[in-house]
Amino acid sequence: MELNLYEQNWLKRGGEFEENSVQLRRKLPRGTNHLPPELVLQSQKERLIEAVALCIHQKGYAATSVKDIIQQASVSRTTFYKLFTDKEACYFYCFKKLSSLHLRLLIQTYSDHQTDFRRAFEVSTLAFIQQLTVNKIYASAFFALAPYSTLSVVAELNVVKAHYVSLLVYWFSILPSQISRSVLPQDVFKIVIEGIFSYIRQWIIQGQEQSTENVHHHVCYVIFSTLGLNDWAKQHLEKLI
């Protein structure tokens, strides 16, 4: 009996971005005198991350001020500037941390299933999409709204997308010849990743109205069909009709 992908939680190695925050907040109510200074500072940083996410999710990057963030996080201005030089540095830190988590999760999940090329691809992309539903505010603030923030974040986002392009190129290149004999130009892979990122961004902005399963079927169909893996693509399309 074939395993149902959508009945599984593929996030066993993901989610530490949120989990660490919860653990630190539990250790740090409001009285911090009995805790090591480094733990206090780390907890304050985690509270600032949550505050940045909420403020930007609600107001957008441009309309969010340092004052908004420190009020939401209940930390002092002095503490904020001890941790970050400005709002841009704070947001860049958050974006890079979350995007690194997503990339690491996808790679680790793929590695666990790499003996089956198709299954490894499907499971790893599903884990990536599932991760975005763990915390919708984080997904909005640090993924969907990232292109509308700062030049440094947009530059880092382009680096992130380049990593995904490289992974897709590598995965396609190691497919056995009986599965695919096609040789595709690099721009095809760039277009695929750009389109998938844009599609997922809109899904998040619209409140994730479509189910994770449907989004995954769309993503797999587009990627497989574009790369000429028509039999694999057809199986995902049939789930959407």
TrEMBL record:
<feature type="domain" description="HTH tetR-type">
    <location>
        <begin position="42"/>
        <end position="102"/>
    </location>
</feature>
<keyword id="KW-0238">DNA-binding</keyword>
<dbReference type="Pfam" id="PF00440">
    <property type="entry name" value="TetR_N"/>
</dbReference>
<protein>
    <recommendedName>
        <fullName>HTH tetR-type domain-containing protein</fullName>
    </recommendedName>
</protein>
<feature type="DNA-binding region" description="H-T-H motif">
    <location>
        <begin position="65"/>
        <end position="84"/>
    </location>
</feature>
<dbReference type="GO" id="GO:0003677">
    <property type="term" value="F:DNA binding"/>
</dbReference>
<dbReference type="InterPro" id="IPR050624">
    <property type="entry name" value="HTH-type_Tx_Regulator"/>
</dbReference>
<dbReference type="InterPro" id="IPR009057">
    <property type="entry name" value="Homeodomain-like_sf"/>
</dbReference>
<dbReference type="InterPro" id="IPR001647">
    <property type="entry name" value="HTH_TetR"/>
</dbReference>
